[in-house]
Amino acid sequence: MIVTEILGNVHEESGRELVAGRHVEKVVLPSAELVKRIQRLTTDHDREIGLRLPAGAPDLKDGDVVAVEDAAEGGTGEDHGHDAAARAGHHGHGGSGRGNAVVIQVLPTDVLVIGARSITEMAFVAHSLGNRHLQAQFFDEDSEYGAQVMVVQYDHTVQDFLEHHGVPYSRQERVMPVPFRHAEHTH
């Protein structure tokens, strides 16, 4: 099966409707793999899937639906997310009447959740970490963190920096909504 598009996301109503009543196979990926446009994936049922997303397609994220297959597929049924070659090689896994769906599941990332006490402290931390070319993600009170925080991938030197400067933080395992990308360093 060759996947060429992301069909939806199970964290949204339209994505939940796509997989409703279907047997769901999962592709479990670490965050670093979400940015790759072309790769070979294996579902939790040991089925191989080729991923070939076009340039400009968004990165994969947790809950993305990459394939939906009808149970009565024989070349005439509805077949989303992959090309005609996959129809001939369809494997019927599962007992649901609607067929299979393949969904991305992201492994948690080791992160530092930084909860600076003031805008000045956050600016100091962000500026200092920016000089290290670390990517950060910011969240507000309405997020799952329940506070204004900056989140970076775990790095022992960042942890040492935060401890040295008395900045509150916690180390957590989190499924990030957006993958961290390696920052290019040019001046």
Please state roughly what percent of the residues sit in beta strands, choosing from under 5%, 5-15%, 15-25%, 25-35%, 35-45% or over 45%: 25-35%
Structural class: alpha+beta
Principal-axis shape: elongated
pLDDT averaged residue by residue: 84
Radius of gyration: 20 Å
Number of strands: 12
| Distance between the ends | 43 Å
Q: Please give the largest β-sheet.
A: 5 strands, mixed
* Helix coverage percent: 10-25%
Order of helices and strands: EEHEEEEEHEEHEEHE
Number of discrete helical segments: 4
Uncertain segments are 74-96
Protein architecture, described:
There is one protein chain. With 187 residues, the protein is α+β, with helices and mostly antiparallel strands. 18% of the residues lie in helices and 30% in strands. The strands form three sheets. Strands 2, 3, 6, 7 and 8 form a five-stranded mixed beta sheet that branches. Strands 10-11-9-12 form a four-stranded antiparallel beta sheet, covered by helices on one side. Strands 1-5-4 form a three-stranded mixed beta sheet, with no helix packed on it. Strand 4 and strand 5 form a beta hairpin. It is elongated. About 12% of the residues have low confidence.
Give a nutshell description of this structure.
The chain is of the alpha+beta class.
Indicate the topology.
Layout: E1 2-3, E2 8-9, H1 13-19, E3 23-29, E4 38-42, E5 48-52, E6 64-69, E7 79-80, H2 84-88, E8 100-106, E9 109-114, H3 119-130, E10 136-139, E11 149-153, H4 156-164, E12 169-174
Parallel strand pairs: 1-5, 3-8
Antiparallel strand pairs: 2-6, 4-5, 6-7, 6-8, 9-11, 9-12, 10-11
